[in-house]
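Is this the right way to post structure tokens for a design question? Let me know if I should format differently. Anyway, here goes:
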């Protein structure tokens, strides 16, 4: 989009001093307009946002996009994490073809985008034969939609033995993992302001990767100045595993791995004790709260308020679409509000807290200070919602209504100043064809293994 665009007089906007709208130029927000004022300089076009609630584009900091092919899978429903993953690992390892993976990624990204998500990461650790270029596929599909992505190169290097559950055909040797991690970093990791593609390194979890791989990965991240990501203490069993196997707490294990630093953000982070939370805050380690999957699998409640009080950055993730079972980040914002209010009380967590976790909080986890907030100089990543459905009728506070009344679909989405969703539809996807193709390959995942 060329020239200066005035997004004019929104119904509501998640930014102080912008009641009259914002001006976008060259992919950035250049001015906030107070109520009743005009832009400081002439504009080339106006967009009437009088029917829209405008928020920063949502930022998703934990996902497993390949899992869209096993939503509500009969072998895995009504199970907690360990029975759930034992049921699905053989299915994924057997049936995940390159075509299936690409369609899974395309569908997940499209669903995220329509929900109002403008930046995502994907913790991909499943490298069965034919998926060696998984990071390239994700980069291509994100570019096709015009979305920002942090390619999160996951890894597994311990085979199914002594209670560890990774099938042998998705486990890689350390030299393969590290070589491909470096390849992906060299090709895709853009550290410049406004980057569309960045890279993080992400061994899956302490129970399925070695201490040596964790340390080598940390060294590589230091060399290339990228983020680190892993699962940690999603369940009590994982915390107990760490204590029994390594004779230390999970946070002490992070320290042994050279991961206890601001580069690191952790998925779930449910079962930390008070001392561990203090240490996480002292070292600037972030936590991705995944409320929907935590409820579906009954894993527990992330201690968000204690974490933030200790100085821990908190963001949101949809998590895998086989434990959510969707890729709708706005829905996860609502679930975060509800679950945290149930835990801490109605006055302790507001709709603005939940929206902040899904925007500025998540941006901080990815190490980005150019997205997640509507402010001059920030990237023009914006999501626009209408309140014209039955569920919103009678709503008095438009921003609160997005969360309390359950918004799920953005009417418009802008990324880097470009419209990527218009009238609720993405510009670059045939939705009907995508659903048909995705369902066709998903049927293979119902076959016995």
């Amino acid at each position: 989009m060329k020239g200066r665009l005035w997004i004019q007089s929104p119904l509501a906007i998640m930014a102080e001093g912008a009641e009259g709208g914002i001006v976008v130029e060259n992919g950035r927000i250049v001015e906030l307009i107070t109520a009743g004022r005009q832009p400081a300089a002439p504009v080339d076009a106006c967009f009437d946002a009088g029917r829209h609630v405008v928020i920063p584009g949502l930022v998703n900091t934990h996902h497993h996009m390949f899992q869209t092919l096993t939503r509500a899978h009969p072998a895995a429903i009504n199970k907690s994490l360990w029975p759930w993953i034992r049921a699905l690992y053989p299915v994924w390892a057997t049936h995940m073809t390159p075509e299936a993976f690409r369609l899974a990624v395309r569908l997940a990204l499209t669903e995220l985008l329509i929900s109002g998500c403008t930046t995502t990461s994907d913790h991909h650790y499943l490298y069965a034969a034919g998926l060696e270029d998984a990071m390239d596929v994700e980069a291509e599909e994100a570019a096709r939609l015009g979305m920002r992505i942090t390619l999160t190169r996951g890894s597994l290097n311990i085979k199914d033995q002594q209670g560890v559950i990774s099938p042998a055909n998705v486990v890689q040797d350390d030299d393969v993992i590290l070589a491909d991690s470096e390849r992906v970093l060299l090709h895709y990791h853009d550290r410049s302001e406004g980057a569309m593609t960045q890279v993080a390194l992400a061994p899956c979890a302490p129970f399925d990767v070695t201490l040596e791989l964790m340390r080598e990965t940390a060294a590589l991240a230091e060399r290339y100045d990228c983020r680190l990501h892993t699962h940690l203490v999603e369940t009590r069993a994982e915390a107990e595993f760490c204590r029994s196997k390594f004779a230390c707490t999970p946070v002490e294990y992070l320290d042994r791995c050279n991961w206890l630093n601001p580069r690191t953000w952790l998925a779930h982070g449910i079962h930390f004790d008070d001392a561990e939370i203090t240490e996480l805050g002292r070292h600037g380690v972030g936590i991705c709260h995944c409320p929907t999957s935590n409820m579906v699998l009954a894993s527990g409640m992330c201690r968000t308020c204690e974490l933030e009080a200790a100085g821990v950055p908190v963001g949101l993730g949809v998590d895998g679409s086989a434990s959510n079972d969707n890729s709708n980040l706005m829905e996860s914002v609502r679930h975060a509000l509800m679950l945290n209010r149930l835990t801490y009380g109605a006055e302790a967590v507001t709709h603005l807290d939940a929206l902040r976790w899904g925007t500025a909080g998540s941006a901080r986890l990815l190490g980005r200070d150019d997205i997640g907030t509507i402010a001059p100089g920030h990237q023009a990543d914006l999501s626009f919602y209408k309140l014209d459905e039955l569920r919103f009728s009678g709503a008095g506070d438009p921003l609160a209504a997005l969360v309390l009344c359950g918004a799920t679909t953005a009417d418009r989405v802008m990324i880097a100043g470009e419209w990527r969703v218009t009238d609720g539809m993405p510009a670059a996807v045939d939705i009907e064809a995508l659903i048909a193709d995705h369902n066709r390959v998903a049927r293979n995942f119902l076959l016995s293994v």
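Format looks fine. Someone answered above. Worth noting: The chain has two domains: 4-56+377-426, 58-365. The longest strand covers residues 117-124.
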